[in-house]
Amino acid sequence: MLAEDALLAEVRKAVKGGVGIKRVRALVAAARESVGVRYGLGAARLRLGMLLDELDLYERQLADVEVAMNEMLEATGYAGRLLQIKGIGVVSAATFLGEAGDPLRFESARQIMRYAGFNLTEDSSGKNKSGTSISKRGRAQLRAALYQMACTMVKHNAEIRGLFSYFLTREKNPLKKKQAYVTVAGKIITMIYAILKKDEEYNAEKVIGAARREMMKAA
């Protein structure tokens, strides 16, 4: 039992965060239940070794991809401005630019939102109490990248987290979590566009704005 626990501990360390750990647990459980069946235990160990080799290969490939993404991000000339924004990393910045293209080819941040399908439209289904929903008539992968970026920044960016909390708890028209993430994604687009357009450094004080800050204090 102790040997199996030690093996699981090493596997958990190798997969970094639990990727594939369910499959590994199943293999270990199968090996434990096959007491006296030596060929079954051997097969499980062989499969476990192959799985660890596969995970190691994926990790090395991921590292290569991240290096390539970093190089391409640097080539855009926007890396310095984007990576100084807390909560935005190489992968998220490169994915955003890869899906949106050069942000400055758009006339406004609102155009980028429409391009991603984040613009509001009338909700004919009647499911939304506000009567509106996002159109989703745009690049689905860009929309997904921005949504993931919003989720990450809510965790790691204090200003964005405060804004997200405000949307959830404000007295008038509080948003559901998914709606709040979408709204935050729109704010992130506006912020990125302004920083690149003006070629200025990220300023936490400007993220929310004076008017919105006063509304948040009053809430």
**Number of H- or I-type helical stretches:** 11
Oligomer state equals: single chain
Total strands:
2
Query: What is the approximate shape?
Result: globular
Q: Poorly predicted ranges (pLDDT <50, ≥5 residues)? A: none
Strand order of the largest sheet: 1-2
Helix-and-strand structural type: mainly alpha
Q: In whole angstroms, how far apart are the ends?
A: 55 Å
Order of helices and strands: HHHHHHEEHHHHH
**Biggest β-sheet: count, sense, barrel?**
2 strands, antiparallel
Radius of gyration: 23 Å
Q: How large a portion of the residues is in β-strands, by DSSP E?
A: under 5%
Kindly state the percentage of residues in helix: over 70%
Number of domains: 2
State mean pLDDT (0 to 100 scale).
78
Task: Please characterize this protein's 3D structure.
The structure is a single chain. The protein has 219 residues and is an all-alpha fold. The protein has 2 domains: 2-65; 77-218, no CATH class. Helix content is 71%, strand content 3%. The protein has a two-stranded antiparallel ribbon. The protein is globular and about 65 Å long. The protein starts with a helix and ends with a helix.
Write the layout of secondary structure elements.
Blueprint: H1 2-15, H2 21-33, H3 38-76, H4 79-83, H5 90-100, H6 109-116, E1 120-122, E2 132-134, H7 140-156, H8 158-169, H9 177-198, H10 204-208, H11 210-218
Antiparallel strand pairs: 1-2
Helix pairs in contact: 1-2, 2-3, 3-5, 5-7, 6-9, 7-8, 7-9, 8-9
Task: List descriptors.
mainly alpha; 2 domains; two-stranded antiparallel sheet; 3% strand
